[in-house]
Design goal:
This protein has 179 residues and is α+β, with helices and mostly antiparallel strands. It has one domain: Chemotaxis protein chec, CATH 3.40.1550. Helices cover 26% and strands 27% of the residues. Strands 1, 2, 3, 4, 5, 6 and 7 form a seven-stranded antiparallel beta sheet that branches. Strand 6 (131-139) and strand 7 form a beta hairpin. Helix 1 (4-21) packs across helix 3. The radius of gyration is 15 Å and the shape is globular. It comes from Paraburkholderia phenazinium. This is Chemotaxis protein CheX.
């Protein structure tokens, strides 16, 4: 069982992480609205990351299409592929969520990101999640991403996160977090 205040905390943590890590530039606009788990997923690909603790497992599923707007925004003039760049960005987003959650659950571990076909999102219900919420993330009015947070609890989950409002892009200085 996950309390309403824990669900609200998870949503606020996701929104902050998305605004911090899914954008490339500090001046970029990020609009996050509720969506469906299938937003942007059927024809595209999914990047999946897991945050696990003794009492719950949280899956962060990011849906993306390999379209011109997404490539132009995330690749710029770099030499990486879109998949490589998005794996890095999604890892940073999930890492930001992990950093917020570790204050409440010190036993967390985080997986490395992996890519699945967009059709796999329809199987999330088979995990019998205690909490499932999806979003449509729009960056600069042009780049569309879907995001789904899926939480399966093995014990009652109740916490209230203190999440500051994000006003600017945090700069990463290459920290290494050890577990």
């Amino acid at each position: 069982m996950i309390t309403e205040q824990a669900k609200d905390s998870i949503e606020r943590i996701f929104r902050q992480a998305a605004r911090l890590r899914l954008m490339v530039g500090a001046g970029d606009a990020c609009d996050i609205v509720h969506g469906t788990p299938h937003d942007g997923a059927v024809d595209g690909e999914l990047i999946v990351l897991t945050i696990s603790s003794i009492s719950f497992r949280l899956l962060l599923v990011l849906h993306f299409d390999n379209d011109d707007a997404t490539r132009d925004y995330y690749l710029g003039s770099g030499e990486a592929t879109l998949e490589e760049r998005l794996l890095e960005i999604c890892n940073l987003c999930c890492g930001a969520m992990n950093q917020q959650l570790v204050g409440y659950f010190p036993d967390l571990g985080m997986s490395t990101p992996y890519v699945l076909s967009g059709h796999c999102v329809s199987y999330l219900d088979q995990l019998k999640p205690d909490f499932l919420v999806s979003y449509r993330v729009t960056v600069n009015g042009a780049v569309q991403l879907g995001a789904t947070v899926c939480v399966c609890a093995d014990a009652p989950l109740d916490f209230v996160a203190t999440v500051a409002e994000v006003t600017e892009l945090a700069e990463s200085v290459g920290e290494l977090e050890l577990f």
